[in-house]
Amino acid sequence: MKSNSIAVYLSESFGLGSEKISMKPIGSGHINSTMLLTAPKKSLVVQKLNTEVFPEPDMLVKNARLIERHLTKKRQLGEYDLAIIRHVPTVENNYLVDCDNGVWRALEFIGGSYSEDVVLNTSQAQTAANAFGQFAVALEDFDAKQLHHVIPDFHNLAMRAEKLKAVVAKDPQQRLASCQADVDFCFAQFGLIDELKALTGIVPVRPCHNDTKINNMLFCNTSNDAKAVIDLDTCMPGYWLYDFGDMVRTFCSPEQEDSTDLANVCVREEIFAAVVKGYVEPLKDLITEQEKQSFWLGTKVMTFMIGLRFLTDYIDGDHYFSIKHANHNLERAQNQFALYRDILAKKTTLKAILRDV
Ligand code: ATP
Ligand code: MG
Ligand code: MG
Q1: Does pLDDT of 1 surpass 80?
Q2: Which residue segments constitute the domains of the chain, with CATH numbers given?
Q3: Which ligand is nearest to the CA of 28?
Q4: Ligand 1 atom closest to residue 213's alpha carbon, by position in its atom list
Q5: CA of 48, nearest ligand number
Q6: Ligand of minimum distance to the alpha carbon of 150
Q7: Residue whose CA is at the smallest distance from ligand 1 atom 21
Q8: Where does the record place the Aminoglycoside phosphotransferase domain (predicted)?
Q9: In contact, 274 and 327? CB cutoff 8 Å
Q10: pTM across the whole model
């Protein structure tokens, strides 16, 4: 289907008519295809869902709408200040539209906002971490058992390690020779799996966002305050250490996650301190001592695990993360391992920052 016919079809489906509409890509997410659909009366964000990643899109929407409803109640009670990204129904009151060999949904567009791929300064890091903390607190009394596990074992490092082992054994694209050193490095880190297992029953399972990347935060164009937490696709029960660790992973490096300038990939300690400060402040009445201590493990695990997943996908033939060029997933993996190595090298400093908050 031509892009203009897609725009017209979606625009009519979501009640925006077919006159004077335009559709263009927005943001830099790499799971779904995200577009801004603009019509004279309003704009919507439309997303073609990645059904390889989310084979049950109706469950995805169901989850997100349960969370929308919970956050709406919290806002009415004055307990949540951020904007809520709501799904928009079609004229026939459905939430999914079949178009262009895929499934689409529409979300309310939050205007006057921007997202970042790399954190610019400590104030931005603290603001975003604080907003993710507010989101975590707002979900604390949400019954996460209602949520369908859209991606089972999403942050299960043991399972991710098994997947890497399986794909290494098969080497379906004959790519192993090009990344053997990275694979060996990965295998040498599997002690992290036992460290995680040791937390079972000690650290509480809570509703988590599970994708607290910096580009899943919208900032206000004028005040630079946090405007909304977005991308609720992977909200599922988990540990706060996952959300914390993913912030460290995506906020602290001065380079994007696919940068090949590995010499410049590092943890900026001042950004790490800002993340800790921003995130822990809203959680202070709920967080347990063990949970706070587990943030060090979260820092290591999340950076390592996403590196492992990029590497697995590279060896497997790039099925999960969309790539822009050959070796893109290998470059992403090597970038994340460089960051992970720097985290280990800065252990004393980072642990001291965690302890002092
Ligand atoms: P990821 O790779 O993080 O999983 P994704 O493919 O799921 O991303 P989103 O994070 O939902 O996609 O959206 C991609 C980008 O589109 C965001 O980073 C943001 O810049 C923009 N965006 C998404 N939803 C909205 C919205 N409701 N209002 C304004 N901008 C939005
Ligand atoms: Mg996103
Ligand atoms: Mg997403």
Answers
A1: no
A2: 3-54+85-109 (3.30.200.20), 122-356 (3.90.1200.10)
A3: 1
A4: 3
A5: 1
A6: 3
A7: 27
A8: 23-257
A9: no
A10: 0.94
- Does the model's ipTM exceed the 0.95 cut? yes
Higher pLDDT, 320 or 253: 253
- How many whole angstroms from 182 Cα to the centroid of ligand 2? 27
Mean pLDDT of 19-40: 92
Six token digits for residue 10: 């979606």
Q: Which residues contact 104 (CB under 8 A, 6 or more apart)?
A: 10, 46, 47, 48, 49, 96, 97, 98
Name the pairing type of β-strands 236-238 and 206-208: antiparallel
Ligand 1 lined by 57 (C-beta under 6 Å): no
SS3 content of the chain, % helix, strand, coil (to 5): 50, 10, 40
- Ligand 1 atom closest to Cα of residue 108: 27
Distance between the two ends of the chain, CA-based, in angstroms? 54
* DSSP state for residue 87 in the 8-state scheme: B
Separation in Å, CA 277 to CA 89, 127, 131, 309:
38, 10, 12, 29
Token pair 């006057």 in the structure block, residue: 112
- Report how far ligand 2's centroid is from the alpha carbon of 54 (Å): 14
Structure tokens at 171: 């080497």
Question: Which residues are placed with Cβ below 5 angstroms of ligand 3, an ion?
Answer: 31, 231, 233
